[in-house]
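PT: before anyone asks, these are the final sequences, not the draft ones from last week. 359 residues across everything. Please model them as a single complex and drop the result in this thread when it's through.
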Amino acid sequence: MNSFGTRFKFTSFGESHGVAIGCVIDGMPAGIKFDKVFLQDMLDKRKPGQNKFSTPRKEEDKAQILSGVFEGYTTGTPISIVVFNENTRSKDYEKDVFRPAHADFTYYYKYGIRDYKGGGRASARESVARVIAGAVACMLLKEFGIEIMSGVFGVGNIDSKLSNDEFDFDYAENSEIYALDNNLEQSFKDEILKAKKNKNSIGARIFTRVKNPIKGLGDPLYDKLDSKLAHAIMGINAVKAIEIGSGIQSSYMYGSQNNDELKDGVFLSNHSGGILGGISNGDFIDIKTYFKPTPSIFLPQQTQNIQGKNIIYKLKGRHDPCVGIRGSVVVNAMVAICIADSLLLNASSRLSNLMKIYK
Ligand SMILES: Cc1cc2nc3c(=O)[nH]c(=O)nc-3n(C[C@H](O)[C@H](O)[C@H](O)COP(=O)(O)O)c2cc1C
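LR: through. Structure below.
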């Protein structure tokens, strides 16, 4: 649906070419310093039109805070934040032609209404709202020294050979494509530009690390932290798979290779990705996210229109050649929301915690 989270919860609204995109965040505790600059920085990292590796749609994505913040601090009431759409060009979109691999097909068959303008709600313009909520979640996490970082470790057929511990988040922070491996940044860029030049698009892979997570986040069984993260990340447009820790690779291993042994209170490896039994074990939470290539490409393709007629479609408009790049910012936001939600939920997991509040 359009809401996510239990204790830290947000509801997003808006369409790609509608008046605005935004969200209402409920459950943020009162008394947290609201960092407007940080919020805008996060939006700027996701915003379109920044460089030749993203869509040319130019949006300023300036956040307007409508409620929930008083004299620079959160008030415990719903925080509503909105970004107005400014650079829509709806005439580029066909009224009744489905774009192959785009969600405009399934939205139409589900709801019977087609908002063809920029894909309407099916567009990843919605992810502006997720980044807003994620930035607010980070303000809570910062109080606990929890930091979340993401970057790109693979584009197309090129994968970084660096280990999770070798990925360079400082480098990614200043890279135009958030590359985690400085030696491969140029190859990643070349790959994206090659796809773009060929009127095509390309997939990408993202690594996210939660630094300094508190032990005990997440709930067993039906609300495992890993399942919650999967729910949050798989809900992002164009995400096709995620892995926690050694993920798929662990299914090829012996237990002796995969087990994270303990010594002097520290794990000697982190194949579990920081989660055991759905609960954080205090080690880094490591997540890999796999984005498919952008559906909208400029090569002629077979498709159908609303009337069911077969047509060869040649797309117009402005699109990302590699959605994983800006998608990495959205992944980071969704992970922050999951961790903030788990942090708040964990406050009532044992009597001693409640005693600290009420006694
Ligand atoms: C940040 C971001 C930007 C995106 N930009 C585009 C785009 O410009 N053109 C496009 O066709 N799809 C874009 N997408 C992906 C589509 O929204 C998505 O693939 C499509 O709706 C089908 O949904 P699914 O891939 O989740 O099944 C973007 C996704 C993200 C995360």
